[in-house]
Amino acid sequence: MKRLTTIIAAVLLTAALLPAQTKVMAHRGYYAHPGSFENTLTSLKGAQEIGVEGVELDVHLTTDDSLVILHGPRIAGSTYPNVQELDYKTVKSCVLPNGDRVPSLREYFAQAKKTPGLMLFLELKAHPSPERETLLAEKVIELCDMMDMYDQLTFISFSEHLCDEIVRLRKGSPVLPISSSKTFSTQELLDRGFAGVSYNMAAVMNKTHLLDEAHEAGLQTVLWPVNSYDLADFAMRHHVTYVSSDQPQAMKNLMSAVRELEWKQTKKLIAFDLDGTLTQHKQPLGAENRAVLDTLAARYEIIMAGAGGCRRIFNQMGGYPITIIGNYGMEESRMVDGQFTIVREDKAPADRKFFEKECSRLRKEYGYTSFKGESLEYHGSGMVTFGLLGTKADPEEKLAFDPDKTRRRKMYPEVKETFKDYSVFIGGTTSFDITPKQYNKYDAVMRYAAEKGYSKDQILFVGDDFADGGNDSQVRLGGMDYIRIDDYTRLREKLQFLF
Questions:
Q1: C-alpha span between 342 and 312 (Å, rounded)
Q2: DSSP single-letter state for residue 498
Q3: 436, 453, 479 — which closes off a domain?
Q4: Dihedral (CA of 290, 295, 296, 301) sign
Q5: Rounded distance between C-alpha atoms, residue 252 and residue 472, angstroms
Q6: 41 and 189, same structural domain?
Q7: DSSP code, position 283
Q8: Measured between alpha carbons, how far is residue 216 from residues 12, 232, 241, 343 in Å?
Q9: Using one digit for the tens of pLDDT, what is the confidence trace for 41-95?
Q10: Is there a single domain that holds both residue 21 and residue 53?
Q11: In whole angstroms, what is the distance from residue 388 CA to residue 349 CA?
């Protein structure tokens, strides 16, 4: 126990000096507990529940060209020695030791989309011929296109042919070769279009310069297997991007402690969302969360980055004295001599005929032709709010309409495509917010930070909706550190480590 305590202390001290936090990948999901098994939907759900940043999974092609998830080649609990020699029906008939069946990649993706912040490290397993590997790559890309999965995917493989094929089929996708012995120079990785490399510990234990050089070049590195504090310490000392662990819960606990210590020491600017983060939708800021802001303001600069206008946010916060970036960055207010003052207003008038035509079409297609008030709300900045229940819907009706955003997420891909020359967000309780393309919370906060001299690693964003289409989503996609608030009444508990 004394040695363990010493190791943890050393890891925390070392990590506090690092410029980037090593993340945890659950190797084959979180299966190290009763009732689970590797590479199943159960192990994926377990990883989602504990909140790791990544999950590794293995994909094979069946004889009838279907995509299934299994480490393989043998199917545990069956007499079949090689999943690649079976058809899909036979694979799905097998029952794994925990009672699950082998999942298809489509089923796996559908579950993974429920936690959009989770990165999937999709290992393409080697197949008997280059032709079969090319077909595997093509089938995977086809499904990724169909299900719009690229924001959550990193492709990995022991087969360099498969890695090259993914680069060829979808240039720009993050691809990492996996190696247990061979090492790659940074220049080779860059020349071949790879985003980094995944190494077994043994391959680089005595060649740590390869990890350091990859980090300096902006490449990702993955280290596996990392199931002890000693190896976690090694990974963090060399700026490894992800550790792949069979004990993700223990690794997550360690990394969370490290992250909290690091953030408390390095963060200078904290940007907050309002509705769902500090308050119920369009409800006044309560005394408890007001006190949280007061406590944080004594140590950090705090600002608001909201979807609504600055004046509306200021009034909803009861006149709290804070800089506000409103309408996704289209306007900004500050306290000047103790007075609320708009210091910037960007305007980009909307094409009303276009918006009314397209939103009318969408209403008819999805059955939202009955609404109260106006169909669209045009903001002075040029932002447009498309409220499915209208501008004068009853507050209670709005709150009950789509609390988990399921209805709007179903519409989101088409709304996004319809307004492809704009930024589209799922906003409020019943609406979509549509802004000129360059306006979103990530760019808005970064613009403010640049004016104030803050770097991105000095910023922390606190919000409630980082899922695709969520009005905080660009923060996640931009790589800014963030904390997700599931329950605004527990804000103090969630942010206590920053005090």
A1: 12
A2: G
A3: 436
A4: positive
A5: 24
A6: yes
A7: P
A8: 22, 20, 12, 39
A9: 999 999 999 999 999 999 999 999 999 999 999 999 999 999 999 999 999 999 9
A10: yes
A11: 22
